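Worked problem 6 (solution included).
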Amino acid sequence: MSNKVWIDDERAPQDFLSAAECEGIVWIKKIREAIRYIKEHAEEIEVMYLDYYMDDLYLDGSELVFEVLHGRKEGAFSNLKTVYLHSSDETAIDEMMEYAEEIKALGVDMLPAPYRK
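Solution. The predicted structure is:
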């Protein structure tokens, strides 16, 4: 299993990350699949790259942020170091960043991705 997960229904990781960063990355394009995957592989994941708008009218990237937040409080995601947010919507980034301090207090950095366009 990979320790890096790219969650985005449209943008490909190789368009934004270096070849080394893409090596072994898991690209998930559906939000419900992403939720299931991060729950099942929580202990393996070290880096997550999250989009906000996905393939579902009712679920968005904030659901994944909540999974990390609540999972960390319960002892999951013990190897997770960084969550990068790469939505092109500033409001969406701001919404997810409202949890950055709380997640940071649990040992995970969450920040807007440096490659955002």
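Discussion: The helical segments are 19-22, 31-40, 61-73, 90-97, 100-105.
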